[in-house]
Amino acid sequence: MWFFVMIALVNGVCIVTSRTLNGSLAQSKNAFYASLVNHIVGFLFLSVVLIFRQELFVVDLRGIPYIAFVGGIIGAFFVVINSYVLPKLGVTLTTLLAISGQVVSGFVLDVINGHIGSSLTLQLIGLLLIIAGVFYQYFKVD
């Protein structure tokens, strides 16, 4: 279990580092350019990984539902938004706001899909603490 926790923590470092680098690129060009460069480099990196794993030509797109491809559009938009707002809000506030949006939308989806169970009160307390932290950070920055 600790292995997966460590991977998740490293993922968090990667996200913040990527946001920071894309924000710098967006300042020198623009947010759409930063997203394009991000995704081209990512595509090339993953292509090399798949070539070395000999999996590049094993991909069969025919069985994938069309709606699954919307994830790529959302991912590109995610990078554009982060690249645009990070230089204006800073790394910490941008990260807090993004995580808050993820937690709130995840909570709403869990409620809609009936996956809350008995922990509703604890999850609401957690949401309120996150929102309070975001407001604290926002007013602290100003």
TrEMBL record:
Record's keyword annotation contains Transmembrane helix: yes
InterPro entries documented for this protein: YdcZ
Keywords from the named record: Membrane, Transmembrane, Transmembrane helix
Residue intervals passing through the bilayer: 31-52, 64-85, 91-112, 119-139
Domain of life: Bacteria
Presence of the UniProt keyword Membrane in the record: yes
GO CC terms of this entry: plasma membrane
The name this protein goes by in its record: DMT family transporter
Organism: Providencia burhodogranariea DSM 19968
